[in-house]
Structures are given as structure tokens and as C-alpha cells.
Amino acid sequence: xxxxxxxxxxxxxxxxxxxxxxxxxxxxxxxxxxxxxxxxxxxxxxxxxxxxxxxxxxxxxxxxxxxxxxxxxxxxxxxxxxxxxxxxxxxxxxxxxxxxxxxxxxxxxxxxxxxxxxxxx
Length: 121
Known about the structure:
- The protein is mostly helical.
- Helices cover 39% and strands 5% of the residues.
- The protein has four helices and two strands.
- The protein has helices spanning 46-54, 58-72, 76-86, 96-107; strands at 4-6, 13-15.
- A two-stranded antiparallel ribbon has the order 1-2.
- The longest helix is centred in the middle third of the chain and has 15 residues, at 58-72.
């Protein structure tokens, strides 16, 4: 028998390994944080991360990004780069901007508070 749990928002029964509720689309506690790693990564992994977060096919997200590039005249590239800078490469990794801030903190001898992440086994 498959393990189930209740959604934190709508209280419907969902699969035990679900990261989002299929009824209300609410993100569940203990779900993997957004990251760019995993299968399907082509350039920087941003479209893969968005597809995983939105529960969509990665090809659909890539097509939407290319259309956004055409419609906005390239402005969507800035959004892509911003997501790349703010999203870690792995679930337990640090985003590029966090790595740079850590380096600046070490060079300037000022402690930079690390984000606390709980790892559940």
C-alpha cells in the first residue's frame, strides 16, 4: 500500500513523496528546495528548475522562455540570469550569489551568516 499524507493547506490525502498538492497546488513542508541540478539540465539548469517547481514538462518551459525572449526583445535573458544567480546548483548547495558573498566576507574578515538548512533522512 502506498504511503499517504495530508496536504498542509486543503487537508486532502496526497502521496507521501509529493512535493505539491495536486488539488490546491500548495508546496508541502519537507519538499526539496528549488535547485538547478538533476536530469534534463542543458545550459544552466534554470528551465529544469522552473519545470520541477511548476510541475511542468521542461520542453514546455524552454519553449515559453524562447517565446519570452522574442516578445521582450531579449529582456527575458536578464530574468534567466537572475534566476541562475539566485538558484543553487544542487539541493544542498549554495547559489552563486551566496558563494560570492561568502568569499567577500572571508576577504573582508566579516562573518556572513550561512542559511540554515535541515536535512531529513
